[in-house]
Amino acid sequence: MIKAAVEGWIELPIRKFVDDSQVVLALLLHPTGQVMAQHGFTRAMDIMSACALASAINASSVELGKMLDGKPFSGLHHGGVNRQLFLAETPTPRGPYIFLTVFNEESSLGLVRMFFDEFRTNLASAAPPPPATNQPTLNENFEKELNRNLAALFGRA
Amino acid sequence: MSTPFTAALDALTRLKGVRATLAVAAPDGITIDSNLQIGQDGSRVAALAASLYRRARKSAVAAGFGGTGFMHLEAAEGRLCLLGGDEVVLVVVARPEANVGLIRVEMLRVAETLA
Which residue ranges form the domains of chain A, and what is each CATH number? Predict the structure, then answer.
């Protein structure tokens, strides 16, 4: 069974976003590239690649925004021929997360942006308080945590 | 900043009972130009109205009715009038007592001038 979220509090906001906006793919990840929730992916390998790329694109656009505008860009949109991509940061009491979504002609950028604003609010209110001891993400833990999250999403935990 | 739609939206806004007018990019649901009152969320109206119009056009084609022209949604607290094509949708948000016939005529006239 493919689950939507690694942690329960993320499940409802992401399901609501997907239902409302009719997107094809959705991915919530930690800025380090750890997957937190997904919709539409069927292979763990695709999630790993999408997370790595989304994390890198977000890091680049944040820096580019700071360079050009003095502050990070708030969202990134790429319009393809058949599918479009929207990438943005979403703050929570647990720190910022990155949200990536892909949509086709069943949805639109206007709808995605509108429902993303709602998702951001819902996610922030659903987030539990940050853990008392916030462990830094260390290189030696990264792969272990990534595999644990992917296993949780694909029912192998 | 004025756009090619500013004069058209101004003309529609002057009609009695009209609360807001928008020109929206049909594929994206993003506002191109608008006349809104304070407190109105134009981006929500634009996104949802464009989606509604796009789906109505698809439904009409699927049912073999051909292209969609004017579309009117009547709700308890107001009316939504839509007219457009593949690229742009004109949106008029009006009060329940507004004259829809007049709004329709003016929207068609404005659409002709923009074509």
Answer: 3-153 (3.30.450.30)
